[in-house]
Each structure stands twice: as C-alpha cells, then as structure tokens.
Amino acid sequence: MVFDWLAGGQPIQQAKKKNSIKYEYCVWQSYHSFGIGLKDLKEANEFGNKGWELVSVTTALTDKDPHDTFFFKRLKAE
C-alpha cells in the first residue's frame, strides 16, 4: 500500500474510526461587583449543576457598563 504512494501513485487512506469529543459553549455576563464577586457564586454553581464547566472569566471595566463575562463548556449530548 505504501509502495504505491512512493512509486508516484495516489496515497491510500486508511479508514480510522474516531470518537471525536464535541462540546457546546455558554457565555454569561454579569455586572462587575468590584470585589464582592461571591454574589455570582450561586448562579455559577447553578451552571455547574447543569453540567457546565467554567473555562474563563474576563472583566471589562468601562464607565457605562462594567461587567464580567463567564465562559462555560460542557460535553455535547449526541
């Protein structure tokens, strides 16, 4: 099989069965609490109870809309 490819023929693809893992994502924004972020802990735990895993948090401190953005993921049901 490999020799056909080495001799200039078309490469032969071997079928590989993959069990690819798929995720779904969720983004949640909350008003920035300026150091008292524990108020968001209850809602974050509710996401966790539904199978969501917290991946990242970003903070945007603007004059008009200071907020935190929470990024979650979980296994996608098939």
Give an account of the 3D structure:
This protein is α+β, with helices and mostly antiparallel strands and about 80 residues long. The chain has one domain: Alpha-Beta Plaits (2-Layer Sandwich), CATH 3.30.70. The protein is built from two helices and three strands, in the order H-E-H-E-E. A three-stranded antiparallel sheet has the order 1-3-2, covered by helices on one side. Strand 2 (about 55-60) and strand 3 form a beta hairpin. About 0% of the residues are buried.
Record the SSE blueprint.
Elements: H1 2-6, E1 23-31, H2 41-49, E2 53-60, E3 67-75
Antiparallel strand pairs: 1-3, 2-3
Q: Which class best fits the helix and strand makeup?
A: alpha+beta
CATH level-3 fold name: Alpha-Beta Plaits
Report the portion of residues in β strands.
25-35%
Provide a count of the helices: 2
Q: Mind summarizing the main beta sheet?
A: 3 strands, antiparallel
Gap from first CA to last CA:
35 Å
Order of helices and strands: HEHEE
Q: What form results from the Cα inertia axes?
A: elongated
Task: Round the Cα radius of gyration to an integer and report it.
Answer: 23 Å
Enumerate the strands of the largest sheet in spatial order, edge to edge or round the barrel.
1-3-2
Indicate the percent of residues in helices: 10-25%
The overall strand count is 3
| Overall domain count | 1
CATH architecture: 2-Layer Sandwich
Mean pLDDT: 79
Low-confidence residue ranges: none
* CATH class descriptor: Alpha Beta
